[in-house]
Amino acid sequence: MQDRTRHDFSGSLPPLPFPFPQRRDLARFRDTVLAWFRRRNRPVRFGPDLVATEPNGLQHGLVNLAQECSLAPAAAWPAIVGNRLGLSDPRRLQRTVQHAAEAPFADLAPRLFVRIYPAGHLPEAHLDQFVHRVDLEGTVTALVLDIGPSMLTVPRPFVAPWGQDDAALFARALQNVAALPAEWETSTLPGPAGAVLDHLCGDDFASSRALCPGALPRYGRHGNLLALGKRGLLSSWAIDAMADTLPIEGMALLAAAGFRTGPGSITPHLYWRAPDGRFERQQTSVDQHHVQVAPSPGFAAVWRELLPEPA
Length: 311
Description:
Elements: H1 23-39, E1 45-46, E2 51-53, E3 59-61, H2 63-70, H3 77-85, H4 90-102, H5 105-108, E4 112-118, E5 132-133, E6 139-146, E7 151-153, H6 156-159, H7 166-179, E8 185-188, E9 196-201, E10 224-230, E11 233-238, H8 246-261, E12 270-273, E13 279-286, E14 291-294, H9 297-306
């Protein structure tokens, strides 16, 4: 692991045609989306950032949908697009949101959860309109409400009648996340250290468990290194000893792959969860030939402490 703390690997989403390997695939995806709206007489403007905007201002973020399509045969794209966009019917959403806004907090509390998104997922100009906080550098943690067809990022006006501060709302939401069924798996990396990684896969709230107290299956004496490249995958290395860089490089590759393919991309970087619960970002850069990690000061100190003495 190279100490490259003067370098910035913060990076955001790769430029288009991400997530498609060929620009013609992006054009085909765009045409599939436009055709769905056209059949419903709903004109839409397709922006360069994979956002479709209707004349009434309703916006549809399409990055996750594009990632789902990129993992499936092109013949399946119309069905995938139809299933996802069908959930965004404005009249149905309006009725559902109106019902949720009128419900008492006791009815809504079991349906509160948190999701971690990349920084910038919520437009900066409107960020204060939603209940959110920052737990992991370079991301945003949002309070979301399960409204059946989708997850609603909770607007500030929603919570005013609830009589709950943000700390109480996030505590309840994380409690709900922690109560979801979780089937952790393990894998052992090759090499002298034989590092054992814990993985939680296929769960839309897998990444959110990184923030739940006591939710990881094992905690290391020197903390845990976490990879949460996308919302459906969380990998954890409980750090008790360190003999080589392989565990860190392997986890950087896991995070980069999850971030690249999605759906639900969060971050290609790693996070060290210190024994006291603090999080520090470990910036990474992955290409075809190299894996580079710029350790945070706290994690670099752990690394130096655990390196074997030179012979």
